[in-house]
């Protein structure tokens, strides 16, 4: 059982919250014109100095930051000399990071009760950490540091259970300053960054603290980890609160979480860190959870230190009794490892035996429905199935509108085949279900891919090009997933709503590429189909859990931004009839880079689907290949193909693969536009042959892991690196002849076999200094691996917007470089990624503007 925080002498009490607020009240004369700032976050290394009558602002330097962090950590270590009062003394030292001069306009008791209610929704203790360099750090800690009469466990450490003054100040700030939420969010973000910086410093404190016992150093890390975890949760909850109240906006996603959350400070259960011995002790999910779905959640930019215990607990309440379902073995099923979607049969290799599902109460003897082709062809615009049907047994169509119910489902769950005569069609029991639900929601039609996207190539292209408008303008989007449809909601409770939200994050529907698009375009009113054809509003469930439920579960939806409600359209505001254009009128909801990051780990069954979905996420234009023997057939297999979803069907030959021609058309639509260079640092395939575009990803999703001839070299990038949006990295511009962009660059001549000095010479724009022997060996390996047809090579590292090195934001234990090759040093070709493991010093880098052709 996972417990939440509760009032007690060793956590927090209402009286203590009231006292903290009393102590932090602004005592200055309210009539004075210059008022004190209510909430000040003291930056690490920042100083104010008095010089005569003037105040000098000393901004942080690397030395001042280190000195400030060392001083504070030293105070925390000294606090451990008093086992009886160590928590109080640590709290006092930590409280110096914030100064408050609150001027509340509501009664102190009312504010304190609101703060206590919010704190009670946090987990009782943060995720446990341990130190892999120690056999068992808890055994080394004296008993006085644990709760009296309790076992030596993480959850009984007094400094882990205690809620510090600063953690209480954070929700106090939010409660007292409700009209300045943007400023409050920024302040809490800054404070969370400060705590992360202190925690980072504590990881390396052993270098200067050899005289300090290991157990004391571990307690300092545990204390700062606890503060960081609680800061992250509260910061994330404030952001989620704003986005649920006002609606999600893609431009606000960059400020969701603190940057250090993805900087490799700690080891996860399946990951290692070269720089830290601190490891998170993660709980294990029940066997029914697909670990690839879990990885999709964990690899989002904000989830590295999110607490998944409540997610697993609520999920297990519904499906903890079920066996695994990922990999088919001779003696049953097994759970996948989560390393690659290509190793999970739920995505690749599992044959779909039956594509004609029936409702729960159907005797499986109902008849199939097919289209009235004349009705379909005579309907203008996007076609939807009309609720006004004729007696001839054929589906009648009408134009999709704001009174259409759009249905989003997983094709492999068997919602019917294509509508033409001679196909499996749509079972009448399913049609009657959706007809009944649509009528109850005040709709006059419903749209679902199986009856509304025929096999004819021209009609199929028309239907696919109109998917955005169908979902965006529909009255509601109905989510149909096998697991969700098994949940009884006749007696709804807060706990059950938390369980449903947990299942949504890990269900089949939430891990597919097409359903991502459908959820994003239709997110203004998403309804979840549950047992007995009952529905639940996703917005209302999110609102309820965010307002009353577990904070650690609610904030996980920040990692699934496509499920957050749409931004509200206010009265008297000029709006476009397609609501998504009101968010970013020029480019649709997402930039190209952001859309690719969302798609990076999601699966579409047919080759070519990914490019179309990518384009539709960016705007409502489907790329049209300039050169393709397939013509319109380049799209004929797209969107929930009626073929069996097997590995063989998805592994078509490159000659028939529409990806390359579609990708070329996609990028030609972007000529003249800017692109974040950090976005290019991924393992996405580069299969476009056309000069000027060979650098461009031909697909946003990751390919299967290739077998390497050099697997003995651990520094080679054998791992797949997912795309990130590249936000805050340097911008390049896409020209007809290539991508023009600035990089931090190290140029070297391709090593000749048995030649140790052929790389020293002056080029026309850079001087190559003589490298060390270790560097020559490393560059020789890179040459052998990447530069087969090139005379010159270069390592590229992304820069941020002001010219500093920009760190890759995903899982990476070293420094990630792009490797490019050239024959003449004038234009360069993308060759791959190289993970420099830092056992050898990094080469010198210089900023250069280059053309990637």
Automatic annotation (TrEMBL):
UniProt source species: Phialocephala subalpina
The name this protein goes by in its record: Heterokaryon incompatibility domain-containing protein
Source species taxonomy: Eukaryota, Fungi, Dikarya, Ascomycota, Pezizomycotina
């Amino acid at each position: 059982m996972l417990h939440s925080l509760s009032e007690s002498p060793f956590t927090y009490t209402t009286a203590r919250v009231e006292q903290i607020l009393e102590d932090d009240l602004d005592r200055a004369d309210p009539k004075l014109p210059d008022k004190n700032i209510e909430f000040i976050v003291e930056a690490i290394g920042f100083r104010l100095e008095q010089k005569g009558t003037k105040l000098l602002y000393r901004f942080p330097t690397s030395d001042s930051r280190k000195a400030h962090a060392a001083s504070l950590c030293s105070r925390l270590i000294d606090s451990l000399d008093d086992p009886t009062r160590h928590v109080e003394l640590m709290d006092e030292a930590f409280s110096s990071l914030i100064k408050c001069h609150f001027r509340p306009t509501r009664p102190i008791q009312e504010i304190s009760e609101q703060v206590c209610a919010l704190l009670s929704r946090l987990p009782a203790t943060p995720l446990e950490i341990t130190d892999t360099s120690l056999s068992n750090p808890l055994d080394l800690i004296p008993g006085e540091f644990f709760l009296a009469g309790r076992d030596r466990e993480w959850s009984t450490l007094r400094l882990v259970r205690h809620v510090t003054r600063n953690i209480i100040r954070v929700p106090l700030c939010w409660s007292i300053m409700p009209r300045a939420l943007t400023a409050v969010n920024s302040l809490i973000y800054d404070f969370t960054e400060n705590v992360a910086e202190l925690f980072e410093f504590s990881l390396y404190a052993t270098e200067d603290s050899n005289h300090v016992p290991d157990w004391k150093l571990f307690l300092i890390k545990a204390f700062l980890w606890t503060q960081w975890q609680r800061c992250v949760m509260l910061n994330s909850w404030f952001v989620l609160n704003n986005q649920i109240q006002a609606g999600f906006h893609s431009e606000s996603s960059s400020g969701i979480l603190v940057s250090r959350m993805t900087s490799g400070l700690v080891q996860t259960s399946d990951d290692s860190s070269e720089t830290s011995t601190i490891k998170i002790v993660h709980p294990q999910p029940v066997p029914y959870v697909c670990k690839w779905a879990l990885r999709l959640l964990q690899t989002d930019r904000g989830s590295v230190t999110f607490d998944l215990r409540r997610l697993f607990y609520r999920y297990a309440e519904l499906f903890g009794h079920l066996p695994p379902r990922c990999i088919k073995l001779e003696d049953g099923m097994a759970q996948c490892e989560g390393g690659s979607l290509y190793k999970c049969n739920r995505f690749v290799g599992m044959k779909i035996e039956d594509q004609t599902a029936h409702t729960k109460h159907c005797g499986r003897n109902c008849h199939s429905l097919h289209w009235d082709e004349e009705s379909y062809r005579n309907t203008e615009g996007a076609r939807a199935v009309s609720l006004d049907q004729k007696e001839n047994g054929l589906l009648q169509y009408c134009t999709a509108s704001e009174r259409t119910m759009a249905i989003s489902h997983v094709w492999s769950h068997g919602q019917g085949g294509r509508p033409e005569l001679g196909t499996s069609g749509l079972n009448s029991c399913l049609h009657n279900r959706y007809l009944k639900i649509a009528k109850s929601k005040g709709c006059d039609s419903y749209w679902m891919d199986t009856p509304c996207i025929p096999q004819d190539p021209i009609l199929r292209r028309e239907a696919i090009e109109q998917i955005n408008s169908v979902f965006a303008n529909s009255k509601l989007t109905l989510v149909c997933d096998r697991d969700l449809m098994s949940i009884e909601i006749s007696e709804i409770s807060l706990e059950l709503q938390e369980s449903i939200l947990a299942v949504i994050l890990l269900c089949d529907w939430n891990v597919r590429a097409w359903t991502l698009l459908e959820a994003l375009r239709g997110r203004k009113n998403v309804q979840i189909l549950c047992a007995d054809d009952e529905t639940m509003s996703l917005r209302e469930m999110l609102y309820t859990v965010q307002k009353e439920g577990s904070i650690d579960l609610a904030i996980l939806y920040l990692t699934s931004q496509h499920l957050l409600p749409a931004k509200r359209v206010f009265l008297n505001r000029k709006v476009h009839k397609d609501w998504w254009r009101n968010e970013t009128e020029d480019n649709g909801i997402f930039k190209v880079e952001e859309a690719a990051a969302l798609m990076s780990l999601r699966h579409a069954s047919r080759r070519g689907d990914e490019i179309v979905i990518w384009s539709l996420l960016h705007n409502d234009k489907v790329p049209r290949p300039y050169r393709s023997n397939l013509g319109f057939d380049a799209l004929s297999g797209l969107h929930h193909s009626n073929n069996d979803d097997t590995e063989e069907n998805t592994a078509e030959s490159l000659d028939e693969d529409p990806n390359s021609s579609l990708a070329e058309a996609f990028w030609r639509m972007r000529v003249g536009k800017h692109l974040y260079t950090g976005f290019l640092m991924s393992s996405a395939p580069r299969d476009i042959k056309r000069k000027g575009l060979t650098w461009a990803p031909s697909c946003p999703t990751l390919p299967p892991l290739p077998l390497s001839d050099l697997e003995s070299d651990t520094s080679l990038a054998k791992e797949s690196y997912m795309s990130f949006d590249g936000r805050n990295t340097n911008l390049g511009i896409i020209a007809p002849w290539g991508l023009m962009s600035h990089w931090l660059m190290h140029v070297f001549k391709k090593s000749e076999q048995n030649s140790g000095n052929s790389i020293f010479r002056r080029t026309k724009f850079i001087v190559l200094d003589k490298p060390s022997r270790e560097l020559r060996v490393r560059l020789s390996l890179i040459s052998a691996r990447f530069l087969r047809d090139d005379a010159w090579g270069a390592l590229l590292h992304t820069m941020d917007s002001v010219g500093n090195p920009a760190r890759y934001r995903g899982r990476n234990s070293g420094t990630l470089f792009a490797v490019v090759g050239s024959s003449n040093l004038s234009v360069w070709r993308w060759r791959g990624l190289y993970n420099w493991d830092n056992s050898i010093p990094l080469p010198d880098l210089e900023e250069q503007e280059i053309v990637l052709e």
